[in-house]
From TrEMBL:
It comes from the Bacteria. GO terms for molecular function: hydrolase activity, hydrolyzing O-glycosyl compounds. It comes from Ruania alkalisoli. InterPro entries: GH, Glycosyl_Hydrolase_39. This is Carbohydrate-binding domain-containing protein.
Length: 1083
C-alpha cells in the first residue's frame, strides 16, 4: 500500500470568535489597539471568524503560544490558517525569530474565490519569546487603510517539528550541500514513502544511472561516491497518496584543490554577502570555496557595525566572523571598509572633516584588529565611490573628493598595519577619465593594489558575452597601461565582475562559459587577481538581476531570512534544503586546476578573430584554454598525445597524431606539448533545430574528407558510445538518448574508426565536433486576456493557446482545469490539436475587474501529461480617444504607494488622482488628473524629471512575461519653464531625449491642489508603425516631491499602476496587460 501524507498533529490551537477558544495558547488579539474580538467577529458561510476591516483599521491577528507547549529546542513551527479568501492581495505571518521579532513568512496570495480555504506556513529559526508586540506571531493582511478586503480568519493551529513540512508530507532533499569531494557524493532525502527512485543525469540532462533506495524511519541516502569529477543533476521520486512527487537538484564532484591554491599563486576568488543567509548555508559556502580552490575573497566589515558608539570599536560583527573563518581556511580575504555610519554626516557617505577623520580612525582600528590577530592585511576603501548608487555624500563623486577620504584612511591603515595591502579606488566601471584624474592627483601613492569593479553582461542585450564588453576588451587594457606607467609593479585586482542568470540575463549554461572566458580575458588585459561577484544567489526572484549573480543556487526556503523572502512571483519551492551548484561553479574549479601556478602566454594566432587560445605554462608543462565566439576548427598535433578536458573537469586522453577539434563558446583545455593550427571541418554533424523533451535525438555525421573511409565508426556523445555504419556517400547516423533537460543542448561528438576499437583512421587521431539543439516541451500552454467589442460594451475572456510541438502525432486534450479571479471551471469537450499546430480555447470571464490584476491558473491535461500556466492578467481596454465609455483608472483605489527612504503618503490630497489611456490611429493619448498638495519641479535638465513631481510610463511591445520585447520609457513634468516630455529608454533607431512629436498640455491648479496632464505620444515614438495589435504591456507611476527630502532625488515616493518601473532594474513582467479596442482593425 502506498504511503500517504499525514497531517501534523497540532500542539496548540486558537479559534477566532467573539470569545476565542484557546488550547495551548495564552492570548490572542485582533489589531494593534487592543480591539475587542467581538468588534471584528462575524459569520461567513456559517463560520464565525475575525474579519479584517478599514474602520477601525484592523489588519493583524496576534497569537501568544503558551510557553509550556513550545519544545525547549524548537527551531521550526508550522502554522495552519483557516481563512475566507476574498480580495486580490495577500497575507503572511510576522513572527519572533532568532534574527528579529518581525521576520516574515512566505506570502499567501488571495485569489478572491469567496470560499473558505486552509493554508500552512512553515516558520524557521523561531524564537517565540513574545517580542512581537508581546506576542509570538501575527497574521498580517497586506492592504493599506481604505483598501482592506474583508478577509476573515476562523482560527490557527500551531505545530512544532524538527523537519521541513515537505520531508514529513512528501519529499525533501536534505543534504546541506550537493558539492562533494571525490568519493563523498551522497544525496540525503527525507520522505514518508518506503522507497525513492532516482535518475542521475550528465550536464546535458542525459540519464547516466537509475536506482531505487530504501527509506528507513523517514530518511534515505543515495550513494553516489563512485562518481568522477563533473557537474551532474539528479531527479528523486517518491510515491505519495498514489501520486509521484519528484525533486530535482544539481551536484558537483571535485578533486581536492591543487597544491598552492591557498598561497601566493592564488589568482581567482569569489565573494558572498555575510549575514544574508543562515549560518548553516554560510558554512556550506565556505566549504565549497575551499574545495573549489578559491584563494582570495572579499567581505564587508561595515563602519556602522564596528563603531556603534562614538570612538568605541567592537569586532563582533558578522563580517568579522566570516572574514576570520575564510582566512582560517586559507582563503586570503580582503575586508572592505565602508560605507557610512549614522553617527556622522546624518548617515551619509563621509564628507565633513569630522566624518572623514572618524572613518579613517575606524579603518585603522579594524586594520589593527585583523593584523594583530593574524587574519588579513588586505583592505578595500569604500565601494564604487564614483557612483551615486554607493555615494550620497555632500562632496560629490570626483577623485578629489575620494582622495580627501583616502589619504587619511590609508595613513591610518598603514600606521596600524605596516604590511597592509590597501586596495582602491574600487570604482564602478573602469572609468578611464576618472582613473586618469585619480592617478594625476597622486592616488597611486596612497594604495598598494588598484581595485576596479566592472560589468558588461547586458551591454548588447541579455547574456552579452565577455568578448563584447567595452570595459573588459577596450578600457581595462588601457587602465592597466595607465597604472603600470606610473607604478610598474602595482598589482591590479578586479574586485567585482560577474554574469547573472536572471530571466532576462544569461542562462546557467552561458554563465558557465562566461565564468571561464571572462577571467582568462581579464588576465590577458593585464589583471593579476579576479574576484567573481557573486558566489551565492542573494534571493529567490528569478526575474531579479541582483538575486541571481551567484555560481551557487540558493537553498529553498519557506519563510524569510531577514529581508530575503521566498514570496516572489516566479519562485517555485523545490524542497531542496541545501546549497546546489550552478555549472559555472564547476567551470571555475576546473579553470583553477588547469591554470594555478602557470603563467599566461600571448593569445595563439589561429587566423580567426573568433577563435581564442591562451597557453599557460611553467616552462615544463603547458595547458591551453580554448574557445570560439563562433565556430572554428583547429588541428591539435602531438607526438606523445595530450589530455583534453572539458569545462567541468572531465578528461579524455587523446593519442599521438592529428586531432581535429571544433571550438565553440564552451571552453576546453588542452594539456601537453602540442602544435595548434586552424583547420577546416573534416566532418559535418547535423541535429534537428528542436527536439521534443523525452525523444531521442538523431545525429547524422557526414564525412567530407577525401580518401578511404572506414566501414564503421565509433560515435561518442558524453558517456554514450555507439558504433555506426558509414553509408555510401559518407554518412553515419546514431540516435542520442533522450534528455528531460529543457533548453539548449550542446551535443559533443567524438569520432574514431570502429576498426581496432578507435585506432586512427587515415592517419587521424580522432575528431571532436559539436552541434546545438533546443529541447522543447511536448506541448505548451499560454494564457492571454482577450477583450472583444460588442454593441453593449465589451466581452472579456481568457484565451488559452495549446501548441502541439510534436511533428508526427495529434495531441488529444483530456481536460482544461481553470480559475480566474473567483471563477473556476473544467472544460472536457476540447478538440485535439493536430501535429505541429496550435489550438485555442476561449474561457468567458463574467466578472472581469478592469485595470487591476486578476490571478489565473490554467492546467491542461493531454496525453497523460500536465502543463500549467499561472500568473496574473489585467483586462485593460484602451478605447478611442474621441469616445471613451469606461471610468478612468482610480489611483486612490487600485494604485500602490511605494515609499522612498521612509517617505509617507498622507492621503489622496498628498498624492492621488485618476488616469486614462486612450488611442488614435496616430498616437497613444494619456489624461491624468493628479491631486498633489505641493508641486515641486525645480529642475532644468529634462533628464532629471524623475527626481521631482512628474509622471513616468513604460510600454512593452510583447506580452509582459515574454522575453525579447522592446521597452520604451517616457516621463513628463511641468517645469518652471513649461511642460517637458522626455524619453529615457527609446525604441530602436531613436535616442534618449525630448520625445519626438509629443504634445503636452500640463496645467497646475494651486487652489485645487491638482496637476492635469494631457499627453499625445506618436506611435512612432513608442516604436510602433501604428496602433499595436494584440496584448502588450503598459505601466504608469506618478512621483511625489514635496521639498522635504534632502539630496538630488527629492521624492518621498510614488504611486504606481502596474509595477516594474520605479525600481531597478526595470521589469516589464510586472506591467499591466492592455489591448486597444474600438479602432478600425482592433478588437
Amino acid at each position: 500500500m502506498a504511503p500517504t501524507a499525514q497531517a501534523i498533529a497540532p500542539d496548540a490551537t486558537a479559534t477566532f470568535t467573539a470569545s476565542p477558544e484557546l488550547t495551548g495558547v495564552d492570548r490572542v488579539r485582533p489589531g494593534d489597539r487592543e480591539t475587542d474580538p467581538a468588534a471584528v467577529t462575524t459569520t461567513v458561510d456559517g463560520v464565525q471568524c475575525w474579519q479584517m476591516q478599514n474602520d477601525p483599521y484592523v489588519r493583524y491577528a496576534y497569537v501568544d503560544v503558551a510557553d509550556e507547549v513550545i519544545p525547549e529546542d524548537a527551531t521550526r513551527a508550522v502554522i495552519t490558517v483557516d481563512y475566507y479568501d476574498v480580495g486580490t492581495g495577500g497575507f503572511d505571518i510576522h513572527y519572533d525569530s532568532t534574527s528579529n521579532p518581525w521576520t516574515g513568512s512566505r506570502n499567501q496570495q488571495l485569489t478572491d474565490t469567496h470560499t473558505w480555504r486552509t493554508t500552512s506556513f512553515e516558520l524557521n529559526n523561531i524564537n517565540f519569546a513574545n517580542r512581537s508586540n508581546g506576542y509570538d506571531f501575527r497574521l498580517n493582511v497586506k492592504a493599506a487603510q481604505g483598501n482592506m478586503p474583508p478577509v476573515c480568519f476562523s482560527g490557527v493551529q500551531i505545530s512544532f517539528t524538527d523537519a521541513p513540512l515537505a520531508a514529513l508530507q512528501s519529499l525533501a532533499i536534505m543534504s546541506p550541500s550537493t558539492i562533494f569531494g571525490t568519493g563523498e557524493a551522497a544525496i540525503e532525502v527525507a520522505t514518508p514513502a518506503e522507497e525513492v527512485t532516482w535518475q542521475l543525469n550528465d550536464s546535458q540532462g542525459v540519464a547516466l544511472e537509475t536506482g531505487t533506495t530504501a527509506v528507513t524511519s523517514g530518511d534515505a541516502s543515495i550513494d553516489l561516491n563512485h562518481l568522477g569529477v563533473g557537474y551532474y543533476t539528479i531527479d528523486v521520486t517518491a510515491t505519495i497518496n498514489g501520486e509521484p512527487v519528484t525533486r530535482h537538484a544539481s551536484l558537483a564532484v571535485l578533486e581536492a584543490p591543487p597544491e598552492g591554491w591557498d598561497g601566493d599563486e592564488a589568482t581567482f576568488g569569489a565573494q558572498f554577502h555575510r549575514g544574508w543567509q543562515p549560518d548553516a548555508e554560510t558554512e556550506a559556502l565556505i566549504d565549497a570555496m575551499e574545495l573549489a580552490g578559491y584563494g582570495i575573497s572579499r567581505q564587508a566589515t561595515t563602519w556602522g557595525a564596528i563603531e556603534r558608539e562614538l570612538g568605541v570599536y567592537g569586532f563582533e560583527e558578522e563580517g568579522v566572523r566570516v572574514t576570520t573563518e575564510l582566512n582560517s581556511r586559507g582563503i586570503d580575504t580582503m575586508w572592505n571598509a565602508g560605507l557610512k555610519n549614522s553617527l556622522y554626516d546624518d548617515g551619509r557617505t563621509p564628507a565633513s572633516d569630522e566624518a572623514i577623520a572618524a572613518f579613517a580612525a575606524y579603518a585603522g582600528a579594524t586594520a589593527e584588529y585583523y593584523s594583530s590577530n593574524g587574519i588579513t592585511h588586505d583592505v578595500g576603501i569604500l565601494n564604487e565611490y564614483n557612483s551615486s548608487g554607493f555615494n550620497n555624500g555632500s562632496c560629490g563623486l570626483t577623485p578629489a573628493c575620494y582622495l580627501e577620504i583616502l589619504e587619511p584612511t590609508s595613513a591610518a591603515i598603514h600606521g596600524a598595519d605596516p604590511e597592509a595591502n590597501v586596495i582602491a579606488p574600487v570604482t564602478a566601471g573602469v572609468q578611464l577619465a576618472w582613473a586618469e584624474d585619480f592617478i594625476a592627483q597622486g592616488g597611486l601613492d596612497l594604495i598598494d593594489t588598484y581595485g576596479v569593479n566592472y560589468y558588461g553582461y547586458a551591454e548588447n542585450g541579455p547574456g552579452t558575452p565577455p568578448e563584447e564588453g567595452t570595459d573588459l576588451m577596450d578600457n581595462l587594457p588601457q587602465l592597466v597601461q595607465m597604472v603600470r606607467a606610473e607604478a610598474p609593479d602595482m598589482p591590479i585586482r578586479v574586485t567585482e565582475n560577474g554574469h547573472p542568470t536572471h530571466t532576462a540575463g544569461s542562462t546557467q549554461a552561458q554563465q558557465a562559459d562566461q565564468a571561464i572566458r571572462a577571467l582568462v580575458l581579464a588576465q590577458a588585459a593585464g589583471v593579476d587577481e579576479h574576484i567573481w561577484y557573486d558566489l551565492y544567489d542573494d534571493g529567490f526572484d528569478p526575474g531579479e538581476r541582483e538575486n541571481n549573480f551567484g555560481l551557487i543556487n540558493r537553498a529553498d526556503a519557506t519563510s524569510c531570512y531577514k529581508w530575503i523572502c521566498p514570496s516572489v512571483e516566479g519562485y517555485e519551492y523545490g524542497a531542496v534544503h541545501g546549497i546546489t551548484p550552478k555549472p559555472g561553479f564547476v567551470s571555475h574549479a576546473t579553470l583553477i586546476r588547469q591554470t594555478l601556478g602557470l603563467e599566461q602566454g600571448d593569445r595563439d594566432n589561429l587566423g580567426s578573430d573568433s577563435a581564442y587560445s591562451f597557453p599557460y605554462t611553467d616552462g615544463e608543462h603547458t595547458n591551453r584554454v580554448m574557445w570560439s565566439t563562433g565556430s572554428d576548427y583547429v588541428t591539435v598535433t602531438s607526438a606523445d598525445g595530450f589530455t583534453l578536458t572539458d569545462q567541468f573537469g572531465q578528461e579524455q586522453q587523446i593519442g599521438a597524431g592529428d586531432y581535429t577539434l571544433e571550438l565553440t563558446g564552451s571552453p576546453v583545455f588542452v594539456g601537453g606539448e602540442v602544435q595548434i593550427a586552424s583547420a577546416s571541418a573534416p566532418v559535418q554533424v547535423e541535429v534537428p533545430e528542436q527536439v521534443v523533451q523525452g525523444n531521442e535525438v538523431p545525429v547524422t555525421v557526414s564525412f567530407g574528407r577525401p580518401g578511404p573511409l572506414p566501414p564503421t565508426v565509433l560515435v561518442g556523445v558524453g558517456d554514450v558510445e555507439q558504433e555506426a555504419r558509414v553509408r555510401p556517400g559518407g554518412q553515419a547516423t546514431v540516435m542520442l538518448p533522450a534528455t528531460e533537460l529543457l533548453g539548449e543542448r550542446e551535443i559533443t561528438v567524438d569520432i574514431a574508426s570502429a576498426q581496432d576499437r578507435g585506432r586512427p583512421w587515415t592517419q587521424h587521431a580522432g575528431t571532436r565536433v559539436r552541434a546545438m539543439t533546443e529541447v522543447i516541451e511536448p506541448f505548451e500552454v499560454s494564457v492571454r486576456p482577450r477583450i472583444a467589442s460588442t454593441d453593449g460594451g465589451f466581452e472579456y475572456a481568457l484565451e488559452v493557446s495549446i501548441a502541439n510541438n510534436s511533428t508526427t502525432a495529434a495531441l488529444p486534450i483530456e481536460e482544461i482545469d481553470w480559475s480566474v479571479g473567483g471563477a473556476v471551471g473544467l472544460e472536457t469537450d476540447v478538440t485535439d490539436v493536430p501535429a505541429g499546430e496550435s489550438g485555442t480555447v476561449l474561457i468567458p470571464v463574467a466578472d472581469a475587474r478592469l485595470f487591476t490584476n486578476q490571478s489565473y491558473d490554467v492546467t491542461v491535461t493531454a496525453s497523460g501529461q500536465v502543463k500549467t500556466d499561472e500568473g496574473a492578467v489585467s483586462f485593460s481596454p484602451i478605447e478611442p480617444a474621441d469616445a471613451p465609455t469606461l471610468d478612468p483608472i482610480d489611483l486612490n483605489d487600485i494604485g500602490q504607494w511605494r515609499s522612498i527612504r521612509g517617505g509617507v503618503r498622507e492621503g489622496a490630497a498628498d498624492l492621488g488622482g485618476d488616469l486614462r489611456f486612450t488611442s488614435t490611429a496616430d498616437a497613444l493619448v494619456m489624461h491624468a488628473r493628479i491631486s498633489d498638495d505641493v508641486h515641486l519641479a525645480d529642475r532644468a535638465d529634462p533628464a532629471l524629471s524623475w527626481q521631482v513631481d512628474s509622471i513616468q510610463f513604460n510600454t512593452y511591445d510583447l506580452f509582459p512575461t515574454v522575453l525579447g520585447g522592446e521597452r520604451v520609457e517616457i516621463a513628463a513634468s511641468l517645469y518652471d519653464d513649461g511642460p517637458i516630455v522626455y524619453t529615457f529608454s527609446p525604441p530602436a533607431g531613436q535616442s534618449a531625449g525630448l520625445t519626438p512629436g509629443a504634445e503636452a498640455d500640463i496645467v497646475r491648479d494651486e487652489t485645487a491642489g491638482t496637476t492635469t496632464y494631457d499627453l499625445t505620444i506618436p506611435w512612432a515614438s513608442l516604436g510602433y508603425d501604428g496602433p499595436p495589435a494584440g496584448v502588450w504591456g503598459l505601466s504608469f507611476l506618478v512621483n511625489d516631491a514635496d521639498g522635504d527630502v534632502v539630496g538630488a532625488d527629492a521624492r518621498s515616493g510614488y504611486i504606481e499602476w502596474g509595477s516594474g518601473v520605479g525600481g531597478a532594474p526595470k521589469d516589464p513582467s510586472k506591467f499591466r496587460t492592455v489591448q486597444i479596442v474600438g479602432l478600425d482593425g482592433s478588437a
